[in-house]
Model the fold of this input.
Amino acid sequence: MFLELRDITKLYDKDNGIRNISFSVEQGEFVTLLGPSGCGKTTTLNIIGGFLKPDSGKVILDGQDITGFVPEERPVSTVFQSYALFPHMNVLDNVSYGLRHLCRMSKKSAAEEALKYLEIVGLSGYEHSQVGNLSGGQQQRVALARSMATKPKLLLMDEPLSNLDASLRIKMRLELKNLQRKLGITMILVTHDQEEALSMSDKIIVMEKGDILQIGSPQDIYFSPQSREVSSFIGRANFVDINGKTELIRPENIRIIPDEKGNYRITDKIFMGARTEYIVSDGKNTLEVEISGVYGTAFEKDQSVSIEI
Ligand SMILES: Nc1ncnc2c1ncn2[C@@H]1O[C@H](COP(=O)(O)OP(=O)(O)OP(=O)(O)O)[C@@H](O)[C@H]1O
Ligand SMILES: [Mg+2]
Done:
């Protein structure tokens, strides 16, 4: 076990903070803290980074109790939700900083290394720009390059892709994952984006209101959620009464069949590009259905249909 949080509690007041958080992270693992705004993700991450002191509990890294260590004493690098770049330095100096001062590289080799990481995040050509003149998404990528460049043992990332446009976000997801595998860095990602969590993680920790709801692989969490809260937060969910038992049925597992005498009626149709979402109702049950591809666009609002699960 590489990192372990043992029974960490940090309360700002009686309702806000995190309570009895325990989990472990293996060397080289990609772990995601997933949960809605205010559930305690940043608080948890800042305790691992050493920026916050827990009220109780321990943080163990590589067999050592580091709970009392200041951030500089931890082999940990953080991409903050607010980027925290050096505003008076240009892009290259921001990324070179850690390489020069932590990794003790010469100015020239630090700059060469920094350029490699700027290329990875798609910012070649911006090395002499002042960070204050960059867009939010560009600043976010400088922050990512800066923390990856020092190849820390543990990289903490707080919503590192939140300000990127959709296509860049998907590209950076792949880049991050590849880099993590290649360098063997242990990463903890904080996000409220379920697709990001499902596509990148070895392990997902689902949080709500300062507690952990479930820990598992992306497949576990998606196919075997342990509670209604988890299933509603990850993917979309229908809860259907089958023989007196409430079962979870995912929208992609329902088929719509054109049927003039069918019990169900399409009450809404939402075209999403790669897929089309329908809301169908028999007056008692209202279900979300998702069909991919062009075939999925074939049904119309108010049409009578039957369904197959
Ligand atoms: N310094 C603080 N003082 C008082 N309350 C705080 C402080 N920092 C966070 N909180 C509260 O603690 C709870 C958890 O905050 P945290 O920042 O960890 O949430 P989060 O999951 O990172 O949310 P988001 O997705 O919005 O960034 C929230 O209700 C927040 O309002
Ligand atoms: Mg946060």
Summary: The first strand starts at residue 3 and ends at 11. The pocket of magnesium ion (ligand 2) is lined by residues 41-42, 81, 158 (CB under 6 Å).
